[in-house]
Amino acid sequence: MAHRMLTTNELADYMHVSASDVERLLRDSDIPKEERGGRLVFRRSEIDAWASQRILGMPDRRLDAYHEKSMRGTQNIFDHAAILPELIRSTYINLDLTSKTRSSAIRDMVALAESTGNVFDSRELLTTIEARETLCSTALPGGLALLHARNYDAYRFERSFIVLGRTIQTVPFGAPDGGPTRLFFLICCQDDRIHLHTLARLCLIAMKTDILSQLYEVPDANAAYNALLAAEQAVLPEKKAADA
């Protein structure tokens, strides 16, 4: 599946955007593409990496717009607008990771994912996450990293889920602002239709709320879980409309 070729229409569905959005991306961006038989096609593995990095680097307004489109594209998958209650549990959170380096942080996060019982092959997961980080760090300003696989395989996980780790000391992880990282999410999506939406949701929460400062201070996994769910509610469209 990672090497599957997408048509222009399939790419639009995959990224939760319109055909006109794809045309704009072809004009204005370096979206990876190939020409076969006189038509454009897109290798899914390359699109995965390109799209995830694009989301990580989106400014405020563009992230808002993309997030709303991806919500519409996944509304037939999630029963409710809030997705974190379906993806994370307090038992998926470890606030005392002893990682000191980039490689040990990745290993510890894979071990945390494996402890959920949802990972079929932890070695393969480690390899694909390391490959993704080699392309470009998933660290963001503010001490957060959003780890995810280099490409997506429907048979990698028992179910889609997220784990969260907080290291005891800071880790140099290649953030664009040069700062260290202490908070690590690992996004493990079984369904390739939702991983970009999940990535956009976490980016939006980090950008629009004070969740990072809360997660640095919470005393335990239950408090971290409750803070995450409250932060997600704060960025949902119906919540923002009610507060307006």
Summary?
With 244 residues, the chain is α/β, with parallel strands linked by helices.
Features:
244 residues; alpha/beta; Multidrug-efflux Transporter Regulator, Chain: A, Domain 2; Mannitol-specific EII, Chain A; 5-stranded mixed beta sheet; 3-stranded antiparallel beta sheet; 11 helices; 8 strands
Largest sheet: 5 strands, mixed
**What gap, in angstroms, lies between the N and C termini?**
43 Å
Strand content: 15-25%
The total tally of domains equals 2
In CATH, the homologous superfamily of the largest domain goes by the name: Mannitol-specific EII, Chain A
Low-confidence spans: pLDDT under 50, at least 5 residues? none
Classified by CATH, the class of the largest domain is Alpha Beta
The CATH architecture of the largest domain is: 3-Layer(aba) Sandwich
Radius of gyration: 17 Å
- Structural class call reads alpha/beta
Oligomeric nature of the chains: single chain
Task: Give the strand order of the largest sheet, numbering strands 1, 2, ... along the chain.
Answer: 4-7-8-6-5
Number of beta strands: 8
CATH fold-level name of the largest domain:
Mannitol-specific EII, Chain A
Q: What value does the average pLDDT take?
A: 89
Shape: globular
How many helices? The count is 11
What is the percent of helical residues? Answer: 40-55%
Order of helices and strands: EHHEEHHHEHHEEEEHHHH
